[in-house]
Design brief:
Protein name: Transposase
Organism: Roseisalinus antarcticus
CATH architecture of the largest domain: Orthogonal Bundle
CATH class of the largest domain: Mainly Alpha
Structural class: mainly alpha
Order of helices and strands: HHHH
GO molecular function: DNA binding; transposase activity
Number of strands: 0
Distance between the termini: 64 Å
Strand content: under 5%
Shape: rod-shaped
CATH topology of the largest domain: Arc Repressor Mutant, subunit A
Number of helices: 4
Keywords: Coiled coil
């Protein structure tokens, strides 16, 4: 089963169907052939950050991209710290 992809415009129109036209979420989800939870998530995303909602094509929102970059940096710094700890222990043994 392949994953379906929806355009940004489709998602915005689906949310407008519920918010502007007053159609029930369950009915709109059935009509659009999407899961109700997916439609509710689209509604949350659009109301939370309308300007950057649904970036599409595997692009992350700027705040999520920053979090990923920071996690990579933390992993790199921890690796460097562990190497320095091992080197310090090795040289401390040499002195004794």
């Amino acid at each position: 089963m392949t994953r379906r992809k929806f355009t940004r415009e489709f998602k915005i129109e689906a949310v407008r169907l519920v918010t502007d036209r007053g159609v029930a979420v369950a009915q709109a989800a059935r009509d659009l052939d999407v899961a109700e939870s997916v439609l509710r998530r689209w509604m949350r995303e659009l109301t939370a950050t309308p300007a950057v909602a649904f970036p599409g094509n595997g692009q992350m929102r700027s705040d999520l991209a920053e979090i990923v970059a920071l996690k990579k940096e933390v992993a790199r710094l921890r690796a460097e710290r562990d190497i320095l700890k091992k080197a310090a222990a090795f040289f401390a043994r040499e002195v004794l």
